[in-house]
Amino acid sequence: MDTAKKIPVGVSARHIHVSREDLDVLYGKGYELTVMKDLSQPGQYAAKENVELVTEKGTMKVRILGPVRKQTQIELALTDAVKLGITPPVRDSGELKGSPGLTIKGPQGEVKIDEGVIAACRHIHMTPAEAEVFCLNDKDIVKVRCGGDRGLIFDNVLVRVNDNYSLEMHIDTDEGNAAMLHTGEAVQIVK
Prior knowledge:
By secondary structure, the chain is of the alpha/beta class.
């Protein structure tokens, strides 16, 4: 395995992916998200639009990431979840069964979801060609080292391989703060 190759990091703040149906309720029928900035993964973007997450314990604003998805999904750091009084499971994107729900408020309406809140598992996006360089396959689990004053080894890092990906490791804000890692810095896979 090529452990010398550096992998850029993307620190992901709390956000929501919305379904077409839920966006129609939150922002109005046929509403189209406005691109604020493109993200590192091709075709993905941060939208100008926000929504408010509401539970019995608290509220929190989150940015919508586009484009729309088939199912609404909220990704929080665990400290965000504490503020809302919920305990989301650590899961891969799209694995929502049995996760907590909440109410989502937009300017035109609100949606109550029964499930859909997760803490995204740390993962690395890579193309098939990059996976070949690293001798890895889709769904492999690896360890990743970061250096610096609070250097550490991230265990249980999921590898996600797809032609539409761009090489990058995604961690949440809690993980980034713990390691003093910032978007654009680099890490390495360890044996």
